[in-house]
Amino acid sequence: MDCPSEENLIRMKLDGIDGIRELAFDLSNRQLTIYHEGPYAPIEQALSSLKLGSHRLSSQASEKTSFLEDIHQKKLLWTVLIINFAFFVIEMTTGLLSRSMGLVADSLDMLADAFVYAISLYAVGGPLLRKKKVARVAGYFQITLAALGFLEVVRRFLGSERLPDFNTMIIVSVLALIANSYCLYILQKSKSKEEAHMKASMIFTSNDVFINIGVIIAGGMVLLTQSKYPDLIVGTIVFLIVIMGAIKILNLGK
Known about the structure:
Layout: H1 6-14, E1 20-26, E2 31-36, H2 41-49, H3 73-98, H4 101-123, H5 128-158, H6 166-189, H7 202-225, H8 229-251
Antiparallel strand pairs: 1-2
């Protein structure tokens, strides 16, 4: 899930730790400032379990007494959640109808993003156990879908299949590219001085954009070569990305 979700994964992982007052993300420099009360050992342990290469730069007392909460965060999360889930349905449907594994795989990437946003919204204010259960269900479900996709790719590699509809591949992927760009736009537009964690959303949402472009290119290659293989290769790569994202989601359930 490469789509844009490391910040949400971190927020969900730290959600059940007492004493945390504010998380200030600087994704462009890959740094996180945590304002908290009490020991930092549980925080370090939680971050290490995500296996994102985290390490503590410093720990010091702060004179900050006012901690701001982003009142628009839930609205933004709901917006990008709805967009991602809608395009999961669109791409899955058109992918099956057009026989494009690239579109099917991209739809699962959209679903992975939707899962992360949904878990984040569902877990807000809720007990840690509920968050972990939902994360486990979402992770295993995502891996199951990706595994089924891999089996279908193998079957199509070995079998004699009609060419995917390159027109549908290109058109739907362009629409998905526009949708991802819009999600990025509204997240970037929401940035304020106190919301440093929003300013570098491009770092993680760029993966979604690259996947959309990859499917568009695959559609063009299908047209030029009259071969099914460009679509199957792109589908395989995206399924791998989806599984990596699902593993990150499963880490939240530990």
